[in-house]
Amino acid sequence: MGNAPSLRLLDLDGSLPGQPMLAARLAEGSAVRLDLSGLGRALRLWSDGRSWSRLEQALAEAETATAGAAARFPLTLVGSGDYHHVSAALIARATGPLSVLHFDNHPDWCRCFPTRHCGGWVNMALAENHVHRVVTIGPCSDDLDRPDRKGANLAALSEGRHQVFAWRRPPTETRRGVADGPGHRYRNGAILWRNLDEEDFAAALAEILDALPTRRVWITIDKDVLAPDEAFTNWDQGRMPLAHLLAALPQIAARCEIVGADICGEYATLAHRHPMKFAEAVLDQPPRPTPQAVERGLQRNAATNRVLIGAFEALQ
């Protein structure tokens, strides 16, 4: 990779450039910032077609300007988890047979309207011809409860194109039957999740990786998969230890070709002007934290980002 920047910041919400380590990386030229602040509100939570086209154009222009970003930007930071659907735009550009490894507290599997939604981006990725499978690792959230009533794409789960491995979740009722898969069983109207926190995580991950349909993988991480003492996000959070996530990266690199990766899950202050987005945030996200909690949380995120970025760069 020579002296090319190894880190790209998509600045949508202002949550990234102010972090001291990232600011230093930008100053020394080992990271680059793509200013997408003009699209921040339009893309947050969900996007219409026009704003999405502007995002795609901005990504294409940035890659042209840097003569091949796919090779030069193995890791992209996106900002708040409200922008996780931006991962679908990045994955769309990583042509060639691909499996997606998705670490998240939520399955992001809903059939949403608008379709370009942070809660449904997995379906966007699966719609790409070159994406053979998405594997979601780590969810604990209530999104797994009664998925048939929440618009979950259970067909993809039954077909094995979307596999879900919960970190910790009791059986969940569903009126719609699903075929058994490696991360779940269906019995008597309920999905019984295979809880990874009850297993040897390295052995379970090895099983997941060995069964992938492609050697090439994209890794996408939403830090809300981590417990609140290790990350601070706009969403309810899971229980996966950061140590497990860090240990997973070299294990993936040893078995697969990592063609790209992205991380979201920063905390960004709400700035919605669209009434439906404001309502969705109020209904679906935790109450606004105190300023003191925000200050402590941002420090926590900066520390976690430092070790995650270091772990990715150690693979190169």
* Biggest sheet statistics: 8 strands, parallel
Number of helices: 11
Sheet-strand content, in percent, reads 15-25%
- When the domains are counted, the total is 1
CATH fold field value: Arginase, Chain A
Basic shape: globular
End-to-end CA span: 9 Å
Succession of helices and strands: EHEHEHHEHEEHEHEEEEHEHEHH
Number of strands: 13
Family: Belongs to the arginase family.
Organism: Aureimonas endophytica
GO molecular function: hydrolase activity, acting on carbon-nitrogen (but not peptide) bonds, in linear amidines; metal ion binding
InterPro entries: Ureohydrolase (IPR006035), Ureohydrolase_dom_sf (IPR023696)
